[in-house]
Amino acid sequence: MKLSAVWLNRVEGIGLVLILLSFFVQIFQNDSEESFRNSQNYHINKKLDHIWALIENKYAEEHPEKKLKPIIRLKSIDHDWELYSKQAEEMEVWENKINFFAEISTWIFVVGTILAILPKFIPERNE
Which range among 31-40, 56-65, 98-107 shows the weakest confidence by mean pLDDT? Predict the structure, then answer.
C-alpha cells in the first residue's frame, strides 16, 4: 500500500497533535492528583490538630494550678471529624477519576505515537 506524501504528512501531523494532547491530559491528571493529595493532607492535619487540642484540654483539666484555658470547641471537632470509611468512599470516586484520565492520556499517547511513526514505514506514492 502506497500513500501520497500529503496523506503521510497528515497522518504524522495527527499523531503529533495526539501526542501533544496526551501531554495536556497528563498535566490535568497531575494537577487533579496533587489537589486530591493536598486535600487528604489537610484533613489528616485537621484531625491531628483536634487530637492535640483534646490532649491540651485534658492537661488543663488535670492541672488547674497552671491556669490554662481550654481551647477546644466540640462543634468544630464534630464538623471536621469524619470516619475514614466515609472519607474513603469519597476518595475512591476521586481516585477513579484520576486513574481514568491517566489511562486516557496513555492511550492518546500510544495512538499518537503510532500515527507519528507509521508514515516512516509506508512507502510514498510517486505521482
Answer: 56-65
Q: Cell digits for 80?
A: 471536621
Taking 3-state DSSP, the helix, strand and coil percentages for the chain, each rounded to the nearest 5, stand at 85, 0, 15
Residue 62: HSE in the Cβ half-sphere, 13 Å Cα cutoff: 6
**Amino acid identity at 67:** K
Q: Are the CB atoms for 8 and 122 separated by under 8 Å?
A: yes
At 52-85, the pLDDT tens digits run 878 887 877 787 777 777 666 666 666 666 666 7
* 22: number of Cβ within 10 Å: 20
What does the alpha-carbon distance between residue 121 and residue 15 come to, in Å, rounded to a whole number? 14
Residue 53, C-alpha cell as written in the block:
487540642
The residue with cell 501531554 is 23
Looking at residue 59, its amino acid is Y
